[in-house]
Amino acid sequence: MRQTAGTHLVGRAAELGSLDHVLAELDRGLSAAVEIVGEPGIGKTRMLAELSARADARRQRVLSGSASELERDLPFWVFVDALDEYVQALEPQRLDSLDGDVRAELSHVFPSLSAFVGGGDGVALQHERYRTHRAVRALLELLAATKPLVLVLDDLQWADSGSVELLGALLHRPPDGAVLMALAVRPGRVPERLSAALERARRTETLARIELATLTHGEAREFLGDAVDDTTATALYEESGGNPFYLEQLARSRGRDAPASPASADISPAAVEVPPPVAAALAQELDLLSDGARVVLEGAAVAGDPFEPELAAAAAATPEATAMAALDELLRFDLVRHTDVPRRFRFRHPLVRRAVYESTPGGWRLGAHERSAEALALRGAPAAARAHHVERSARKGDATAVATLREAGEASASRAPASAARWFAAALRLVPEDAAEERVELLLARAGSLAAIGQFSDSHAALLESIALVPDDSVALRVRLTTACAGVENLLGRHEQAHARLASALEGLDDPGSPEAVSLLIELATDGFYRMEYEKMREWAGRALSAARPLGDQSLIAAAAAALAYAGALTGAITEAEMHRSEASALVDALADDELALRLDAAVNLSAAEIDLERLVEAEAHAERALAVGRATGQSAVVPLLVLALGWVRRLRGQLAEAGELFDGAVEGARLSGNALSLAGNLLNRSLTALAAGDVETALAAAEESVELTRPLDQSLMSASAGLALGAALLESGDPARAVAALVEPSGGEELTLIPGAWKTNWLELLTRCWLALGHLEEAKRSAARAEACAATRGLRLATGMADRAAAAVAFEAGNPVLAAKRALASAAAAEEVGVPVEAALSRTLAGRALARAGRFEPATAELQRAAAQFHAHGAFRYRDQAEHELRGLGHQVHRRTRPGKADRGVASLTERELQVARLVVDRKTNPEIAAELYVSQKTVETHLRNIFRKLDVSSRVQVARAVERADRADRTLLR
Would you state the CATH architecture of domain 756-894? Predict the structure, then answer.
């Protein structure tokens, strides 16, 4: 049987061998990702098809999707194309095993689940797009639970921004299970964010790269088949340059009779990105079509790729019956092909679609897009599906088109803000210049979407444009836009510019006692925090409260009182701060949720003040309520601040796994937003949490990144806090000299003049330990003395306790163990009174060491045992090990709480809870099933699994199961 060009795969032996190896690893339960790279027409799609066939032969599940050049802003399209139809066919009980929040997130991504899953009414937040990514990861894990999953994603150079972010998240943290992500991408056209994600994955060796070269002469000869003679094959090879698509296209045109009339297809090689001979061959191929088939093909090129024949008919203004007959002709000429989904077809190659689209007359194309939009509207398609047709066909002043684009932007804003920014910009182009109010609303929406993807300069420009459009009598709107603009300026590190803008707006108000004036005063107080002017912050907040009281607006009074309480705590005016905290707390608690939503900053500043005033229970309650209200009302801007407060409280209260989980999510969210300040803040807190849990490597890496992020910014409390985290990690890693520099340099010198009073004792206690580690006793004494003086002026229990611990450490090194034990026990008592168990246990460890040196071995043992138990209970394993080391030095046998008799590594290093989770993994339980059995959240299960993977040095659940089974076999052997 004679072979023709392109009917079989030739060459690529090494590449296919690599793919076979990956598929074999997948059968062993290992996740993987592979990237196939090459120029247009080089055979990327053909390689993915071969991979799919081989995976299918292994009985692996294959799901495929492709991005489309002309539909780059359909949110998550490449994943929807791959997964939506399959997920729709799943039995309901399969999805029921997923957590409710996960199902709700999935319902916003996959159209087929929007009604079935439910929970789709919840408001999503731009800063929490990582929740969507985690939900899709959970879905992939579910699909891979019964058989390995191969997820094929083609033409990613055209992927929409939502898909790019999601793919980046999946590469950064791959699904836990046998999932292979096979990607095809064209170099030179990759969006910056996708390029960065792919490069990061290659550096960490989680992504393998296969680069396809052109065919050799011999491979090209085999590719062309025996229907082509050697002389012609050589000519075609030289003309095509060994590119398989070009070679096939030229072979298709070989021997064709030229059309009797001039070619109707006007294909520009530059527009289609092919050599002129290939463009001519495509044009010749298209000219062989009947007029009816040609117009339907052109309608399909407008309708989409893949396309439905009904929509292609509508775009072409052709009756559906005629379109169906034309479709048969298109299939016969192999210009379009069937897909796995009924009534859905694809072009033979994206270059063919592009050639057809570019060859259509411009006026006809406008009408075709307009007809497509109308047809989709009649079907009830969402605005996002219609928007790209509307954008290409709408007229200036078309109110319906503006409404469609705006609706598409609002629907995309939370999970795909880059697409939303595009739709808002498209709507702005259609709005008449004199429609100031509508333009302001669209500019504000676009500014928010741009800020969510880190384009702060563009967001700032949009806000400035909107301010210029606001009429003089629209005071409330002008103030709202001004504060939003100042907020972006602070994110850009332009703190002086933000302050000047707010102060100028305040001076420009006719009524200094208006609600708008109070709002500006509160913003100026917040601005004082950025500028490290804490007394000014207190002054602005005091003026705000005085102006708010006569207005009688309880939410406004609460916001002003909370700001003043926080300012008082930072400046050390504790009595005053406590008074205003009490007032703000009573007001916030009395507000209904809809009232609190109007001034959510009241709860933000209140929880911050309560942390500094050592009221951790109240701080957690207020932050949790505000977070719920913020999520319910879509107030993205405040959510990172509340997550930060909650994570801080949980770290202090010893809930290290929960705090780490919160900060991990917050870091993911900050990376997506491009907000350097937010990312730096969450990284430094992730560092402190990891350090408490004993993960020094993570602590050091997170702190170093936080410091690097703050270097280009103005000097601020954020840079000083990053230095604190880095100093703590460096001290634990054995580098006290660098720790001192990291701590002191961004904080105003050894006296830490830039650190607010409420925080200074923590800095000074750490600095004392750094000096002692360096053997600098006199410097340590100075730091400890400053800590005591600072604590004495505050009267706060934990601050006093930290000063006691600094003094105890100095006394211990100075040879006074009795005094050291006394001060350390006082420190422990203070920490326990406030509810900070890990800090209490650290002080008890020091007390135990001091008591042992003083010869009081029995109380020393008691303190060390108590400390070790506290550390273990809260997951502070490094500190637990240190306490147990001291106990062994006193001659006490330490009974491990994991697996007796084992060394502190491998399965033996797992805590009781981690071992429970590991055994449930052995039983093939899913994360939701484990969570239900242990009465914990799915997120907590994920945190335990990350710890298990790290301790066992494995990367999959299968490897966890094997490690546990091996340990059990070893135990049984020992018992014989």
Answer: Alpha Horseshoe (1.25)
